[in-house]
Amino acid sequence: MRRRQVLPFQSHIPLSVNSIHYQFDTDGNAIDLTSAKIDHLGGTYVWYGLPFGCGQAFCGITSYSSSDLQTWHFNGFLFDPNDTVIQTLCSAPLSGNCGRPHIVYSKQNNNYVLWVNQASPGYLLFTSNNPTSGYTMLQDRALVGFQPPGPFQAGDFSVQIINGTGYLAYSLIDFTTTGASIWPPFNQSIYFQELTPTMLNTTGSVSHVVSAALDLVDFEAESPDIFQRGDYFYISASNTCGFCTGTLLIIYRSKSIAGPWKRQIISADTCGGQSTGVLSLPSPSGGPTSYLHIADLVNSAPLSGTRNAAHGHQLQLLSFNHDGTINDLNCSPTQTFTVSLRPGSNVSSTGLVTTATDTSGELASWTPTCNLPTSQLYQTWASSKTGTLSEVGVNVAGDTPTGNLTITIFRYQSNRNFFTPHYIWETLTTVNIPPSSISQAFAVIRVPVGKAVTEGDRLGFALVSLSVTPMCVLIKTSKDVMVNMETGTRTLFANGAGQVSLRGRDGTKPPVNVMAGQEIKWYAIVV
User: Fold this and answer.
1) For 67-124, how does the pLDDT look when each residue is reduced to its tens digit (9 = 90+)?
2) CDD domains this protein is in (predicted)?
3) How many CB atoms lie within 10 A of CB 438?
4) According to DSSP H, which parts of 71-154 are helical?
């Protein structure tokens, strides 16, 4: 049974932002979400969207819960992604792949409504009594107020409740322009409409969200989200971007849902990614609401592909001016901010990493490094506890590997062993991880060990890839892991694949190198 944590009513929580912006769940896995939204649902914060770690166009819709926007607990799938009907609907080409999921609470029906982008007309709907699981598909779809016959399809969208009323913002894709030029592939622009009280359909007139410019920026707008601040309705959006490495961040605002709409561009490339939405955070003390922008940082992904699971995310506090305009995003890798929020409740804060005996840590500037199979890596540490080493976990990502990843857990005596010919460590266990078990996200590979260790034992794991295609690990650089040849215990060693003999002009240089100050993301559990 996981421990449930109930937090006090008011909290001031600093949210530190690092250079690559990887977040992790309580078991150490990198958050595998794309086109995802954070909402306050069921008394806590829920981050939900599309995982792409399986390497397919549709892997399901998953969610994580947090009480503080820092510690995330993995909830699993919102519905069974392997259901035959679901696979047919969500995997079809040009179907939208059940993307850009959004959840709203229907007060009238006392349930949660999940909207997803799935072909035409309008949007596919699911309902559940739980915000994070148990969703069942409805036969009736939500229709939109403006979708002409022919090659027009509702695309990216958002649904949001403001002051008790539900709203939909959606991009209408005009496929009549497909193939007409090298770029853009098609035109699309945003429409805004009210929802019925059940949150299951639209009602009333439709507003076309365009600026006075009526230019290509307006007619390439997608990934909208909705929020309100003061007298203004806001719609955040990007320009057309198929999971690309950066696009415009657009902000529309109007004092009426009917317009007219004023437009700003507050980032040239969304810091190397694409906007996924804005989370409104009412002050726990009655002060002004904070607004947190969330983006997929696709440019952080070390692996190729349009649906890439190995990217990080950026959470950034929006800064407003007196006239309602918003200041530009700050893309500095060292930016930090503090936000006051009401903590969520009934969220587990424990997991494999949070209870691990020894670990590299979670909050750090993690950088993806794809030096497997070109190198063999050896990460070491000293056990801080006597007992049984039950398991070791390490974050690895691979893009359709062609061979196994071999992981060996070992015990050794001295750092100098790595530079000594014919040295043989004590093998505690060796496992071969097949390609099918390696995620395209930075998921933890768990290695069961079950061997006795003593406090102070020098331990390590070796990573050797037999794949032709790259595999990646997460690396942090810190002065705390700078190597001391005699006393250092947190040391990363590497040698090139096949480099097994002395090197150098005088023939005395060992093939193993010290990666000074670097450490792989890992954990170890001793019981």
Assistant:
1) 999 899 999 999 999 999 999 999 988 889 999 999 999 999 999 999 999 999 999 9
2) GH43_CtGH43-like (cd18824)
3) 23
4) 84-91
Check: CB of residue 420 under 8 Å from CB of residue 370.
no
Which parts of 143-240 are beta strand (E)?
A: 152-162, 165-174, 187-195, 202-209, 221-229, 232-239
Q: How far is CA 260 from the centre of its chain?
A: 34
Q: What is the pLDDT of residue 12?
A: 54
Cα 256 from Cα 286, distance rounded (Å): 25
The residue whose two tokens read 């913002």 is: 169
Please state, in angstroms and as integers, the Cα–Cα distance from residue 258 to each residue in 203, 207, 232, following that order: 14, 5, 12
**Phi (first) and psi of residue 62, to 5 degrees:** -120, 170
Distances (CA, A) of 273 to 12, 35, 215, 421: 28, 11, 22, 47
When pLDDT is averaged across residues 222-227 and rounded to a whole number, the result is: 98
Class of domain 358-526: mainly beta
pLDDT mean over 419-441:
96
The CATH homologous superfamily of the domain defined by 4-348: Glycosyl hydrolase domain; family 43 (2.115.10.20)
Q: Provide φ and ψ at 415, rounded to 5°.
A: -60, -25
Domain ranges within the chain, ordered by starting residue? 4-348, 358-526
Amino acid making up residue 31? I
What is the maximum alpha-carbon separation in the chain?
Answer: 82
Which residues have a Cβ under 8 Å from the Cβ of 132 and sit 6 or more positions away?
41, 42, 46, 48, 63, 65, 75, 76, 78
Which run of H or of E encompasses 235?
strand 232-239
Q: Would you state the structure tokens that stand for residue 506, as one six-digit string?
A: 């005088």
Q: Would you say 492 and 519 are in contact if contact means Cβ atoms under 8 Å apart?
A: yes
